[in-house]
Automatic annotation (TrEMBL):
It comes from Strombidinopsis acuminata. One of its GO terms (molecular function) is signaling receptor binding. InterPro entries: Kringle, Kringle-like, Kringle_CS, Kringle_sf, Serine_protease_kringle. Transmembrane segments: none annotated. One of its GO terms (cellular component) is extracellular space. It holds the Pfam family Kringle. The lineage of its organism: Eukaryota, Sar, Alveolata, Ciliophora, Intramacronucleata. Residues 1-78 form the Kringle domain. The keyword Disulfide bond applies. Keywords: Disulfide bond, Kringle. This is Kringle domain-containing protein.
């Protein structure tokens, strides 16, 4: 997952720690020097380990790392499963949401 956006917060809203900063509050090996070409700049969420999504080290001393939702990417969270059981209808709703989002950007 090669994300190069500017998301700086985790899914729970924690601010990401800068990749080049150590001991503030966490020390880690995922640095620009150790992982060149992976986009470890500023405090942007990235995926230097080829995980299933982007993540970052947090600036919260009580939580070392957390996954992030990419800015501009829809991430539906439905822990109870799908309310709409038809895959076709879910596809229609997904494409409609992209169209509406695109129209909103143009507006």
């Amino acid at each position: 997952y090669d994300y190069r956006g500017r998301q700086t917060r985790t899914r729970s809203g924690k601010l990401c720690q800068r990749w080049g900063t150590q001991n503030d509050p966490h020390n880690f090996t995922w640095t620009p020097d150790n992982y060149p070409g992976t986009g470890l700049v500023e405090n942007y969420c990235r995926n230097p380990t080829n995980a299933s999504t982007i993540w970052c080290m947090t600036s919260d001393a009580s939580m070392r790392w957390e996954i992030c939702y990419p800015v501009g990417v829809l991430q539906p969270a439905c822990p109870e499963g799908y309310e709409i059981t038809s895959q076709t209808m879910r596809d229609v709703l997904e494409y409609t949401s992209y169209i509406l989002w695109g129209l909103g950007v143009l507006w």
